[in-house]
Design brief:
211 residues; alpha/beta; Rossmann fold; seven-stranded mixed β-sheet; disordered N terminus; transferase; KsgA/Erm; SAM-dependent_MTases_sf; methyltransferase activity
């Protein structure tokens, strides 16, 4: 059984001033996502960026007081990245791994102090080689995990846990009713958030930790 105590998000500790995306930016981001989805549906995985409430829920599992970088996989146009900055994570601590080169250009404009890498998140060991030189305090993922075989998802989880502090969270959202990585395991624990009904479509956040 997952340990229910892990399901509680950490309270916000140090909010920062960060301009909210304008309505025009949001509409442009949705258009970018839709175009990217039509071109490469198995890579993008969603037709719209994560909503504000879902992004905030994902970011809430990151404790800004812990040391080390925060790795984000598949940030897209940056809604979760923005939520992490609002959470109190200094942009310099962010390592953003994005496959889409157009999204990478956009992320570099919006978060100039973050490290933006165009690369394959599923080969995270090679992608982050020489970039992350200390244990990360969290990994946030918006990858479409269900497009990959279970063995590859488990390998990603193991690789990410190797890059983080013990007990650091791997945070993943899903639209599915089942977890993107099985909840029962002898090598990690899993907990879930309540369903985020205000997201379109409604989503849930899963958090995986290696004790």
């Amino acid at each position: 059984m997952p340990r229910r105590s892990r399901a509680k998000a950490i309270a916000v500790t140090s909010p920062v001033s960060h301009p909210r995306p304008q309505k025009r930016d949001i509409l442009e981001d949705e258009a970018r996502f839709l175009r990217s989805w039509f071109e490469r549906p198995l890579v993008t995985g969603a037709v719209t960026p994560s909503g504000r409430m879902l992004a905030r829920t994902m970011a809430s599992y990151v404790d800004p007081r812990l040391t080390g970088p925060v790795i984000e996989l598949g940030p897209g146009t940056g809604p979760v990245t923005d939520a992490l900055v609002r959470r109190g994570i200094a942009p310099e601590r962010l390592v953003l791994v994005e496959y889409n080169p157009d999204f990478c250009k956009l992320l570099r404009r919006r978060f100039p102090k973050a490290t933006v890498l165009q690369g394959d998140a599923y080969d995270i060991r090679a992608t982050l080689a020489g970039v992350v030189d200390e244990p990360a305090c969290a990994t946030i993922s918006s990858l479409p995990l269900f497009t990959k075989p279970l063995e590859q998802r488990l390998d990603l989880l193991s690789a990410v846990h190797d890059l983080m502090h013990p007990d650091a969270p791997f945070v993943q959202f899903t639209y599915a009713v089942v977890p993107p990585i099985p909840a029962k395991s002898t090598t990690y624990t899993a907990s879930r958030s309540n369903k985020v009904w205000l997201n379109l479509p409604p989503a849930r956040v899963w958090v995986y930790r290696r004790p």
